[in-house]
Amino acid sequence: MLGSKRIVVGVCGGIASYKAVELVSRLQQAGALVDVILTEHAEAFVRPLTFSTLSHRPVYSNLWEPSGKAAEIHIELAEEAELLAVVPATANTIAKLAQGTADNMLTAVALATRAPLLLAPAMHHHMYTHPATQANLDVLRARGAIIVEPEVGRLASGEVGVGRLPDTPLLLGAISIALGRTGDLAGRRVVITAGGTQEPIDPVRYVGNRSSGKMGYALATEARDRGASVTLISGPVALDAPYGVAVTRVETAAQMRDAVMEATREADVLVMSAAVADYRPAHVAVQKLKKEGQGGAQTSGLGDGFSLDLVRNPDILGELASLFNEQAGEHGTRRTLVRVGFAAETTNLVSYARAKLAAKRLDLLVANDVSRADSGFGSETNKVLLFHANGEMEDLPLLSKTEVAARIWDRIVPMLPSA
Predict the structure, then answer these.
(1) For 286-309, how does the pLDDT look when each residue is reduced to its tens digit (9 = 90+)?
(2) Active site amino acids
């Protein structure tokens, strides 16, 4: 999403300006063309050479330089920008932007550009909560500016309060959302499941699988970056929630089933990438099972030959197939939903995948051999086959999970009815 995007980063004079250095570096690494504008006071914290070295571009600051070229440059920057991100945004610059003042390079570009404006305020908490600052932010919001709210944390003063600039990953997420507002999923509502489920045996143990959730989280991030409103239904994983994505946390297959049924009421797409447990223990012990047999369940304890009775979990995709093909059911009439499933296999990949595609009446099925070291659970890459409802099969090369997510959404978008 960031590749080849023309982004102007405005850096204001505050201690948090050092974080803008990493942001510019990460944007450049992602393929964006980054122009940096420093206010006069920002140069007291970070020198222009730092930003020019990382952006591989000139750095601009002086609107009043004697050659007069800045007058031409500020219009060029304003017209070519696809996004103006002010990071950090100080109270002083926020006030100037709200009033339409154009007394330096940054505010002049802001007044001349028609690109979206993103502001990441950072300042002492009393300055941020002051009615004047909040009123200025309200004015800018009303004009369409995107405000990345500061975090609560330790400030430069040593006090703890609201006003801390978020870390770079969150800022990158906010920038991606701003750039994706007109993407090919703009206005669409998508639901994605991720991770594995955990079916309790007792308060300590569970039946589960090795799913890391990385593929589902990559799908959610890609959909977000294309402009979708994303609900991510996640089993227990060791991953941070993508910025701007609504996350519903679940543990069991039954909880995931209920969350999916609720979230898909108004959705356009469901991508079931979660590894949902097929079975759960028939009886859950109230207390931890002991080797000596004091577990409180219908069992004599773990012992030397512990047996576990299992019952089938709900078939979420199977249930949805009936509901959406009949367009009615216990949950009421639903609109058309594009349904995408996943099949993680260790043998007979093609035959099992085709069978699941037909049985669940899916629009697309993504299959992978999880016995491979480069596409199993927890890997950073994936080697998948795509099975379409018309019988077509695509064999994708080994790709990063981020790129696999992009390919999957490329296939889904044409399936959507006109908005």
Answers:
(1) 998 887 655 444 445 566 677 889
(2) 209
